[in-house]
Write a structure and sequence with these properties.
By secondary structure, the chain is of the alpha/beta class. The chain contains five helices and six strands. It is globular and about 45 Å long.
């Protein structure tokens, strides 16, 4: 589907955690994570041309975050605030006016969904957004949680399947099923 035809008035593009630490060479790299960037950039160009809102979420952890292995969490240290690993991938063509949403900022609590303790749902409603096009990293973790949370908040959700990659292929398949069960629809844009 052509992204310019897909995005309509009242839609927003939500890009989840396309950060250096989640791409090849990063602290918590997703295999092929940077392969999704050209698809997302097409979506960004279409959103800009159509006047759609563009949102980019990011893990923005303090040092010694509760989710890090050194603190007893499941993950290696990643996306630490103000580090290169926390930066958006340099090939991601985010416009200056993209809305950036930081999550996982508390020392004592992790956040996988872009909606978790960020105020994003209210902001989107205030902007008149009813439908979200979502892609990013990783399909079986933060994309899954963002999609299901968006559905719980009542948004119509389209997951851009060629703009997401899982940490684990089997978990990616399970995540796809969970997203479908939540009422999200799966799309491909190009």
């Amino acid at each position: 589907m052509n992204p310019q035809d897909a995005l309509q008035r009242g839609d927003a593009l939500l890009i989840v955690d396309v950060q250096n630490d989640f791409c090849p060479g990063g602290a918590l790299a997703v295999a092929g994570g940077d392969d999704i960037i050209p698809v997302l950039n097409e979506g960004i160009e279409a959103a800009k041309a159509n006047g759609n809102l563009i949102i980019a979420s990011r893990d923005w952890h303090p040092a010694h975050h509760v989710s890090f292995k050194e603190q007893g969490g499941p993950w290696p240290a990643h996306c630490i605030q103000d580090t290169r690993g926390a930066e958006f991938h340099p090939d991601l063509a985010l416009p200056e006016n993209a809305v950036k949403v930081s999550k996982g900022t508390r020392f004592d609590e992790d956040a996988y969904s872009a909606f978790e303790n960020t105020g994003l749902a209210g902001f989107l409603r205030d902007q008149g957004i009813g439908r979200l096009w979502i892609g990013g990293l990783a399909q079986d973790v933060c994309v899954l949680r963002t999609v299901t949370h968006a559905r719980q908040e009542g948004f119509d959700v389209r997951v851009i399947m060629n703009a997401t990659r899982p940490v684990d292929a089997d978990q990616g398949e399970q995540a796809t099923n969970e997203m479908l069960e939540s009422g999200a629809k799966l799309e491909h844009i190009a």
